[in-house]
Amino acid sequence: MKKRIAFFLAVLMSVSLLPVNAAEGTQIAGIGIEWNPRAALQTTPPSVWVTPSAVVVLPRRTRVHSPRGTRGTQQRPANAPAAAVTATATIEGVTAPIGREGSIASVELGTRDIRSIVSNAEGGSVSFDFSGLEGFSYVREARVPRLALQRFADAGLAVEIILPRGTVELSADAISEITGHGFNANITVALSAAPAGLLNSRQRNAVQGDAVYMFSVLSGRTAIEDFASPVTVTLGTSGQVFALEASGDLTRLTGAGPFELNGSAVVVVR
User: Fold this and answer.
1) How many CB atoms lie within 10 A of CB 161?
2) Per residue in 173-210, pLDDT tens?
3) Cα(157)–Cα(179) distance, rounded to whole angstroms?
4) How far apart are CA 36 and CA 51, in angstroms?
5) Is the pLDDT of residue 266 over 70?
6) Is the separation of the CB atoms in 240 and 234 below 8 Å?
7) Domain ranges in the chain?
């Protein structure tokens, strides 16, 4: 008991002797404990994003890979509810659980489910519709198991992912290329309105109030910048679509309707 009391007194004395401006990570003498003045003050809990294969815990503000030409720090939209939401959707006759955490929706499919979807698929494609589910209006990213996409591509099936902002169509060739990137991580397709804070000054000057969207495909948390087989994107708004470069230059993609992209991009509709 005396030894324990002496130990705790030593700890208290070591902490009390730290200067008030001691850097975070400073070792407290003799006991290998790091000084972390902010830990006890941390009141904002991390957000928990549920994926089909794992639970990923991320801080409230996270460094992520952004489409080319945008800044890398993204934050959950202020009006997006943090509480988890679950629903079910019927995919080619298979009822699958769908989860949403923040702005990310994820679908869970087992091996038997994947086989059934492949067997039931008609018209050469599989559709994932996240747009009409109650509580999913804030979704801007859809996460699908890599194994499911690989099996669909092996069967020659395209995949259609419907998000509130628009629809992304992945051909079997595009899926094969996308799932060939990285390790055994799930694939995320993101399509959302681009906050002005993510654009640089040249881009902001170029858009002049036009609607701006960001598109990206990620393997795990790594953006796939380029892929040879294009994906087709259809936005929920009408107008001419332009690719917005980091330089502020605009390249016309289409007069109206669907357009093709070969990687992460920022697009403008006017």
Assistant:
1) 25
2) 999 999 988 667 899 999 999 988 899 999 999 998 89
3) 14
4) 31
5) yes
6) no
7) 2-40, 45-269
